[in-house]
C-alpha cells in the first residue's frame, strides 16, 4: 500500500511534477493523490491534471488575515482526500502552528539552500554574496519555525565563477528535482515500518 501524499503549491509546480513522475515507478513508496494550491490558476495545477492527479484550489485571499480559517479549509480538503503525508513544493505561505501541529512529523518541505544556512528568501543571492563555494537544497520536516525543522537530506551544488542568482537557481532546481522524490520515498518507507 503506497503512502497517500498531497503536494501543496503556489506556482509552476516543477518540484511537484518531479514528485508525480517519480511516483509512477512501481517500487515508489508513495502516490500523489492531491495537488492543492492557494493560488487560482497556478501553473502547476494544469501539470497535475495532465498527469491524472486530482487538484483543488483554496485561495487564501477570501480569508483575509485569518490564516487559521484558510488552513482549516485546506486541512479539511486534505483529510477528505485521505492524505497521510504533505509535501510542500513552492507553497508560498507561512503556516500557523495550528496546521503544522496537526500534521507534525508528516509534513515535508524543500528549501533552496543548505540549511541551516539562508532560511527564508533570496537564498542564492545570499550564498553568492557570502562567497560560499557551494549552495544546494534541503528536504526537511516542517516545524513552527520557518525552515527550521529536522533535516532529512541535502544535495550540494558548486557555485561557479560568474554565477548569478538566476544561473545558480537553475542548477539548484535540477538538484531539487532529484533530491525531493528520493527523500519523500525514503520518508514514506520509514512510515510503513512504524
TrEMBL record:
EC primary class: transferase
Domain of life: Bacteria
InterPro entries tied to this protein: Formyl_transf_N, GART, GART_AS
UniProt keywords, alphabetically: Purine biosynthesis, Transferase
Raises pKa of active site His (site feature) positions: 147
Entry binding sites for (6R)-10-formyltetrahydrofolate: 67, 109
Pathway it works in: Purine metabolism; IMP biosynthesis via de novo pathway; N(2)-formyl-N(1)-(5-phospho-D-ribosyl)glycinamide from N(1)-(5-phospho-D-ribosyl)glycinamide (10-formyl THF route): step 1/1
One Pfam assignment: Formyl_trans_N
E.C. number: 2.1.2.2
Residues at the active site: 111 (proton donor)
Binding-site residues for N(1)-(5-phospho-beta-D-ribosyl)glycinamide, renumbered to this chain: 13-15
GO molecular function: phosphoribosylglycinamide formyltransferase activity
Functional description taken from the UniProt entry: Catalyzes the transfer of a formyl group from 10-formyltetrahydrofolate to 5-phospho-ribosyl-glycinamide (GAR), producing 5-phospho-ribosyl-N-formylglycinamide (FGAR) and tetrahydrofolate.
NCBIfam families the UniProt entry points to: PurN
Protein's recorded name: Phosphoribosylglycinamide formyltransferase
Amino acid at each position: 500500500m503506497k503512502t497517500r501524499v498531497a503536494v501543496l503549491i503556489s506556482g509552476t509546480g516543477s518540484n511537484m511534477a518531479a514528485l508525480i513522475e517519480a511516483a509512477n515507478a512501481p517500487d515508489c513508496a508513495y502516490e500523489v493523490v492531491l495537488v492543492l494550491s492557494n493560488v487560482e490558476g497556478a501553473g502547476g495545477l494544469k501539470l497535475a491534471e495532465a498527469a491524472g492527479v486530482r487538484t483543488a484550489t483554496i485561495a487564501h485571499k477570501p480569508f483575509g488575515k485569518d490564516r487559521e480559517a484558510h488552513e482549516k479549509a485546506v486541512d479539511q480538503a486534505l483529510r477528505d482526500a485521505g492524505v497521510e503525508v504533505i509535501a510542500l513544493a513552492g507553497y508560498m505561505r507561512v503556516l500557523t502552528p495550528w496546521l503544522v501541529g496537526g500534521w507534525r512529523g508528516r509534513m515535508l518541505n524543500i528549501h533552496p539552500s543548505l540549511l541551516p544556512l539562508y532560511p527564508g528568501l533570496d537564498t542564492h543571492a545570499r550564498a553568492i554574496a557570502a562567497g560560499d563555494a557551494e549552495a544546494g537544497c534541503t528536504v526537511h520536516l516542517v516545524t513552527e519555525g520557518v525552515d527550521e525543522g529536522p533535516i532529512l537530506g541535502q544535495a550540494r551544488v558548486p557555485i561557479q565563477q560568474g554565477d548569478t542568482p538566476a544561473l545558480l537557481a537553475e542548477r539548484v532546481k535540477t538538484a531539487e528535482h532529484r533530491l525531493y522524490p528520493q527523500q519523500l520515498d525514503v520518508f514514506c518507507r520509514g512510515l510503513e515500518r512504524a
